Amino acid sequence: MDFIGAYSPGNLQFLLSGLMVTLKVAVIASVLSFFIGTLVAILRYAKIPVISQVLMVVVETIRNLPLLLIIFFARFALPDVGINLDIFTSAIVALTVFESAMFAEIIRSGLNSIEKGQIEAARSSGLNYIQTLRYIILPQALRRMVPPMVSQFIALLKDTSLAVVISLPDLLHNAQIINGRSVEYVIPTFIIVALIYFTINYILSIFAKRLEARQA
Question: Which one, of 96, 111, 94, 97, lies nearest residue 42 by Cα?
């Protein structure tokens, strides 16, 4: 094992550039997933005929598919129908599709957790359905959903590593390139990659636990 060679300034900078790609993909995908998931959750919560049922089928289908399959589909199947995406965009699209279904269920559970009495009181005070949703239900539901959404972001951050199969230049991909330079670099490189993932996710998990404790 060659720790000195593996941790040379050039290699560390290369890993850092991969980490930036990982974080960028994770943040963009999580923001898009949150907004799409919120819209889907609200439409399902409203129980609009047909639309609610169709969305339920779509969400459950996506949740039960392997993320790796969705990544392959975004990168290699979409070009067959005339949609050509670069590697970076393919990863974001695949992660957004998958995580939107996850966020939709988290948000829908949060909406359903609001007591019916509050909703009835809001409606009786003169608020219409949209106003009740906007001013009464959503604000409270979002506060309750923060811990599970942070946990889902942690899962999303780890899931970005699956995009290595389409050569996304993320942290794991760059680590593999460094490993290819010398067999002596393999263990040192994977150790530092594991520490990076652990540190980021551990900090986020502590943040989620503190938020959950504050709401208890």
Answer: 111
User: Which tens digits make up the pLDDT trace of 73-84?
Assistant: 999 999 999 999
CA distance 208 to 141: 16
Task: State the CATH number of the domain containing residue 67.
Answer: 1.10.3720.10
Whole-Å CA distances, 151 to 27, 133, 148: 14, 25, 5
- The CA distance from 42 to 111, in Å, is 8
Q: Residue 215: what pLDDT? A: 64
Residues of the chain with pLDDT under 50: none
Half-sphere exposure of residue 39: CA atoms within 13 angstroms, side-chain side: 7
The torsion defined by the Cα of 63, 66, 67 and 68, in degrees rounded to 10, comes to: -170
Hey, what are 119's tokens? 């909703």
Per the CB < 8 A criterion, the answer to whether 104 and 44 are in contact is: yes
Provide the residue type at 111 as one letter: L
Q: Which two tokens stand for residue 163?
A: 């995009």
The DSSP string of 113-165 is: TS-HHHHHHHHHTT--HHHHIIIIIHHHHHHHHHHHHHHHHHHHHHHGGGGGG
pLDDT at position 116 is: 82
Residue 46's φ and ψ, nearest 5 degrees, are -70, -15
Cα(first)–Cα(last) distance of the chain, in Å? 48
Give me the pLDDT at residue 4, please. 87
